[in-house]
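User: I'm preparing a small set of examples for a lab meeting where we compare how different chains pack in three dimensions. I only have the primary sequence for this one, and I'd like the structure in C-alpha cell form so I can line it up with the others. Please keep the answer compact; I'll paste it straight into my notes.
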Amino acid sequence: MRTLGNLRAARAGDLVPIPACDKTRDDRVPESEWTSHRGPVEVVLLEGWCVGARPQPADALVAAVNDLERDEDADGRWRRYVNGQLAGPYADLSLCSICGYCSGPRISIRCIRWRAQQERGVERTESSMPPMNDRELRRFIAHYERLTRWILLDEPADIVVHLDSDRVPIEYCSKKNVEPVFD
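Assistant: Understood. Below is the C-alpha cell output for the 183-residue chain.
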C-alpha cells in the first residue's frame, strides 16, 4: 500500500522503489535489489493471486475443499484467517480502478501444469529453494484451491481475459466498457 501511495503521489524527479518477488525463494527480493521508478505514473499494474478477491460468506468456509483443508485445517482456523485478510488488508487494494484476471482453459487445481512449467524453467541460485516435485507442487497448489475456485465463481474482476492452453488470449470479457487491446 505504501508503494502504491508513493506511485500515486510521485512528481517529476521522485524516485519510488518497486518491490519484486523471487519465485525461487517464495519471498520478496532484498530491498537492495529492487528497481525504482522515477517521476509520475499514469498506469500501475499490480499482479497477485488474491488481488481483487473478495471474502467468502462465512457458511462457505465450513466444508473443506480438499484433503489439505480436511487434514490440516479441520477447525477452519486458516480459512477464517485468510477470509479476514481478504475483508481487511486486501480490501484496501480496492483503490485499483480496474481489476482484471487471466483465466486458463478448464482450470483444474489437480492438473495445473503452468506452475510446473514455471518450476522447471526458473533459473536457480545458491539462495533458491530447490524446484518442487509433483507431490510438493500438488500440496502447494492445494493451499490456493479454495481462493481460485471462489474467484472464478464470484467473478470480482472488471476484465477477464480467457487464455488457451498455450496462454494465448482468445476471448475478452468486460464489465466496464473497456476495449480490448488485442483481436
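A couple of notes for your slides: The chain has a mean pLDDT of 83. Strands lie at 15-18, 21-22, 27-28, 35-38, 100-103, 159-163, 169-174.

User: Perfect, thanks.
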